[in-house]
Amino acid sequence: MAPPAIIAPSILSADFGSLGKECSDTIGRGADWLHVDIMDGHFVPNMTFGAPVVTKIRSHVERPKEALGKGTFDCHMMIAEPKKWVKDFQKAGCDLYCFHYEAAINSTAAEAPEATSEKKTSPKDLISYIHGLGMRAGIAIKPGTDVSVLYEILDNSNKDEVPDMCLIMTVEPGFGGQKFMPDMMPKVEALRKRYPELNIEVDGGLSESTIDTAADAGANVIVAGSAVFGAPDPAQVILKLREAVDSRR
Ligand SMILES: O=C(CO)[C@@H](O)[C@H](O)COP(=O)(O)O
Ligand SMILES: [Fe+2]
Known about the structure:
Pfam families: Ribul_P_3_epim. By secondary structure, the chain is of the alpha/beta class.
């Protein structure tokens, strides 16, 4: 059976003027995780914030009592050098460090020399490095990346090198409020068929009008930014997203 719904509002659409309160209120309204979008202006054409801000918002949200439990900070690292920032985010209170496959295969070991002796960073090395620092690891792919790149990473008997979640982007990363790409659903379907118990996250354009498509395909971790923070009743939206996923289990 597919894992239960996990609703992760993206704080990119929150009021940055009162981010701590927005975060604690959102957990109080029924969210499981907070999706924290980190953009560096290189991997994506936009910038958000770094570890110091995560440290501040962490003090407003209780740490999860179990791995991937309520209050998990799901940090979506849209950054060109994912290995370089693992330690800083761990210290800041990140629970799930989700890096992009496309960035990992293009970055070098020099970013974190102790992590590997190979010249190029491999996703499995990075996952093991993240696990070694006590966090869970996620791996994300952009719309143009084939889902099959994840199979080799997931089909590994060394669990230390296997991600705890895969993120299928349903928009080009960089901005909130974009239109959901239904043509990404075959990737979700293929992953769900092959890995019935995997946490599969979808991110970009999720709302009450697109959730059925994503839930039918087998996604269980639902990121929603504008749909939650732009709603008159965010708790109701969170509930609707959860029901759509859980009713298909
Ligand atoms: O990673 C990203 C964008 O790059 C997302 O997390 C968005 O922030 C989601 O926002 P909505 O599409 O739900 O408004
Ligand atoms: Fe995101």
